[in-house]
């Protein structure tokens, strides 16, 4: 299998136990993408993993808002926010990468969502759209000009990462076969349309 050019990076989004079957916020078929992602890593000189890493009192958890239901929405200082079941709490088994995922090939692990008052879907910015994760600077420093995205979930963390990468001038390829979606209220179609309009290529 040929190696992709050094100017391209693979970003593996949130392949963690809580997003896989049996997890607190399981995405159907989330574990099915692990083996092919492992194989894909071998083709890239730059591999980045992202990891949801929430404190237990995170503001995006419905349990931390008395009377609120999971998957409802509330207004936060930075805009509308979906409230989620408690998931990917720092140091828990749910926050760990899926045991089948090869982590040794990763050159960088970006942890996100660790600030209590701000959720973070994107690998590049938190949900206030202003607080950077540092990923852009890392990629620029390695001479990366385009990224390939895989992981969980297509319509949330993968899509937000793809849109932010395009907004920052990176070429973006998303591999739908190596992603799985939540599809909450038609979110998958909406995000696919937004990504298409932004110039994301679906491989």
Could you explain how this protein is built, in words?
- The structure is a single chain.
- With 203 residues, the protein is an alpha/beta fold.
- The protein is 20% helix and 22% strand.
- The protein contains 4 helices and 8 strands.
- The strands form 2 sheets. Strands 5-2-1-6-7-8 form a 6-stranded parallel sheet, sandwiched between helices. The protein has a two-stranded antiparallel sheet with strand order 3-4.
- It is globular and about 55 Å long.
What brief labels describe this structure?
two-stranded antiparallel ribbon; alpha/beta; 203 residues
Please count the beta strands (DSSP E, at least 2 residues each).
8
Q: Regarding quaternary structure, how should these chains be classified?
A: single chain
Radius of gyration, whole Å = 16 Å
- Gross geometry: globular
Q: Tell me the helix content.
A: 10-25%
Strand content: 15-25%
- On the 0 to 100 scale, the average pLDDT is 96
Low-confidence stretches: none
Count of alpha/pi helices = 4
Helix and strand content put the structural class at: alpha/beta
Order of strands, main sheet, comes to 5-2-1-6-7-8
The H-and-E topology, N to C, reads as EHEEEEHEHEHE
**Cα distance spanning the termini:** 17 Å
**Major pleated sheet:** 6 strands, parallel
């Amino acid at each position: 299998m040929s190696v992709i050019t050094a100017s391209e990076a693979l970003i593996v989004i949130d392949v963690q136990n809580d997003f896989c079957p049996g997890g607190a916020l399981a995405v159907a078929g989330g574990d099915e993408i692990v083996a092919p992602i492992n194989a894909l890593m071998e083709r890239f000189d730059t591999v980045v993993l992202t990891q949801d890493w929430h404190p237990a009192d995170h503001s995006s958890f419905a349990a931390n808002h008395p009377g609120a239901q999971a998957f409802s929405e509330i207004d936060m200082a930075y805009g509308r926010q979906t409230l989620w079941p408690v998931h990917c709490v720092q140091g828990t088994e749910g926050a760990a990468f899926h045991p089948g995922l090869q982590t040794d090939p990763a050159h960088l692990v970006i942890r996100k969502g660790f600030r209590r008052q701000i959720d973070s879907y994107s690998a590049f910015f938190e949900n206030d759209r202003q607080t950077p994760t540092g990923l852009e600077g890392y990629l620029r420093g390695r001479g990366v000009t385009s990224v390939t995205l895989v992981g969980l979930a297509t319509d949330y963390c993968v899509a937000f990462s793809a849109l932010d990468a395009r907004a920052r001038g990176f070429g973006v390829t998303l591999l739908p076969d190596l992603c799985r979606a939540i599809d909450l209220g038609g979110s998958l179609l909406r995000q696919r349309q937004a990504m298409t309009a932004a110039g994301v290529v679906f491989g």
